[in-house]
Amino acid sequence: xxxxxxxxxxxxxxxxxxxxxxxxxxxxxxxxxxxxxxxxxxxxxxxxxxxxxxxxxxxxxxxxxxxxxxxxxxxxxxxxxxxxxxxxxxxxxxxxxxxxxxxxxxxxxxxxxxxxxxxxxxxxxxxxxxxxxxxxxxxxxxxxxxxxxxxxxxxxxxxxxxxxxxxxxxxxxxxxxxxxxxxxxxxxxxxxxxxxxxxxxxxxxxxxxxxxxxxxxxxxxxxxxxxxxxxxxxxxxxxxxxxxxxxxxxxxxxxxxxxxxxxxxxxxxxxxxxxxxxx
Length: 279
Hints:
Blueprint: E1 3-5, E2 8-10, E3 13-14, E4 17-21, E5 27-28, E6 31-32, H1 36-46, E7 50-54, H2 61-72, E8 81-83, H3 84-95, E9 100-104, H4 107-115, E10 119-120, E11 127-130, H5 138-149, E12 153-156, E13 162-163, E14 170-171, H6 173-184, E15 189-190, H7 196-205, E16 213-217, H8 220-229, E17 233-237, E18 256-258, H9 265-270, E19 272-273
Parallel strand pairs: 4-7, 4-16, 7-8, 9-10, 9-11, 11-12, 12-15, 16-17, 17-18
Antiparallel strand pairs: 1-2, 3-19, 5-6, 13-14
Helix pairs in contact: 3-4, 3-7, 5-6, 7-8
């Protein structure tokens, strides 16, 4: 079906694979966003490869699958969840196979680092790896600072400064990374969004090509920019951090802006995505 855009007629480009953010796109806190279950169900029924991405490094894919299913009724297979912890572990394995790391984080991160064969130690590690946790320890942060000062390379799963909780906002990886950076004078290399490295690792995970993949997100400054920089088309949903009227404030724009994930469901069966026609 041809699409009229700026007075021209263009053909919709094929979509073979989908990547989507989790929070703000599929769920809000523990509640499903309307259309999320239908979107995932459509992908699975059509046999379309996809990954659900999250910067959260606390939980393993198995944990997240159970949480999504129990709280929101969204059925995402474990192998279809890609976290910043997994992307970080893959980066470490690519850079320095069989290395060692001092890890500050929870099960999602420690399990991912363990699974690539790394030794977790506080004795002269190759890396200090910082992830998200609900119980940041002053002792662990102090140890990380000393190890970095002694020469350990500094890696962090994501730059998010804060995260939501039932009680309100909590400090997240980015905030603690800033504390460590101030103490050491060393900046971490962030793996998660907006680093397009996470997008490229996700594409490789499902043998996808950027030209035929679409990234769906709710944040212009993480989801959309990292999707663009990885060479993908992008869809912004107005159910999360970035509202429609804020899109014009950015020097880049998504391929398509929609009200919610429910508006994307028809494109799964059509295997295409039109160019945005909004002003």
